Amino acid sequence: MCRLFGMSSAPRRSRATFWLLDAPDNLSDQSRREPDGTGLGYFTADGTPQVHKAPVAAFQDRAFAEDAATVESATFLAHIRYASTGALRESNTHPFEMNGRLFAHNGVIEDLDRLDAHLGADRSLVKGDTDSERFFALVTRETTAHGGDVTAGIVAAARWTARHLPLYALNIVLATSDQLWALRYPDTHELHVLERRPGGHHGNRQLDHAGAAGRMRVHSGDLARTPATVVASERMDDNPHWLLMEPGELLHVGPDRAVTRRIVLPQEPAHRLTLADLHPTAAASQQAA
């Protein structure tokens, strides 16, 4: 199953080190659990998005995924991909960038021909062939149509998708240089949020998250002194304040650290898919590692 991680310490910038894969497993485990892509997105001091990603597959070069990248940003987005749609190449690896925003997705959306038709000329925003990037293009279009309101753009795109397309899961994280959004829909996969005070639960600790299932580790000494909001596919430490997002819930972290949460999709998808409905490759990508 793809793994998502988003973090905001806005308005303060913080330094963080990401390991997008843990230490190597034995060879037999690698063949079953090796991801199909890893990616890290963040923003420079002037707000320019930066994306480092590679289509890492079984038995291929692990150097990109194992190297620690130390970067500074007010917001971060990391993703480990298990492919459901699209070939193993960089253009299909998350996170994606459009109009200065970064985006990553965990789930499956089907009937992409209908989505392409709905996108029309905005299909040109899509550089790869994933369902995820197509949905991001829809969010981008709807955001523009709503005067640059990203929240409204996400809600409009997600509601149209829920009404019209076969859907297994639509867990997303979207980041700008000073804001973060996350959506969990429906209840297929978990998505957790932690409003972390400086020093964490114990008051004097740096951030040191390690996701056992997601094979992702994040370290930030700066967060011993700085508050942050973290969104992740799994609880990544023993802090008791992790909260499971509700199905249909949209989270927004503003540039002033204000966190808002509300249910924007109270109804089930009109065409909800099960694992049995998916192509075997897509079904395998959606099961827990």
From TrEMBL:
Entry annotated with the keyword Chaperone: no
- The yes or no answer to whether the keyword Repeat is present is no
Q: What are the protein's GO molecular function terms?
A: transferase activity
Residue ranges of every copy of the Glutamine amidotransferase type-2 domain listed in the record: 2-256
The record's keywords, sorted A to Z, are: Glutamine amidotransferase
Q: Which PROSITE patterns match?
A: GATASE_TYPE_2
Superkingdom of the source?
Bacteria
Task: Cite the PANTHER family for this sequence.
Answer: GLUTAMINE AMIDOTRANSFERASE, GLUTAMINE AMIDOTRANSFERASE YAFJ-RELATED
This protein is called Class II glutamine amidotransferase
